[in-house]
Write a structure and sequence with these properties.
The protein has 74 residues and is of the alpha+beta class. It contains 3 helices and 3 strands, in the order αβααββ. Helix content is 49%, strand content 26%.
Length: 74
């Protein structure tokens, strides 16, 4: 079983809830505002969660001013 930090669990809970309705595109700042972390904290954890998470797929999608992440059910 994969071990997650408290912050990773909060991020995963947010993403899992959002992706339950289908594919979702999200930015770190949006997640951070919703769960009380900084965009930098979220952005640094998403690449690791992309490798660790089994239930959802997290993919770096695009970059304008900030990175957009594509999240789908795994």
């Amino acid at each position: 079983m994969t071990e997650y930090t408290e912050e990773e669990r909060r991020i995963l809970a947010y993403l899992t809830d959002g992706v339950a309705r289908g594919e979702r595109y999200v930015r770190s700042k949006t997640i951070a505002d919703a769960i009380g972390l900084t965009a930098k904290q979220v952005g640094s954890r998403l690449p690791r969660l992309a490798e660790k998470a089994d239930d959802i797929e997290i993919e770096k999608w695009g970059r304008a001013r900030s990175t957009t992440w594509r999240v789908t059910q795994g």
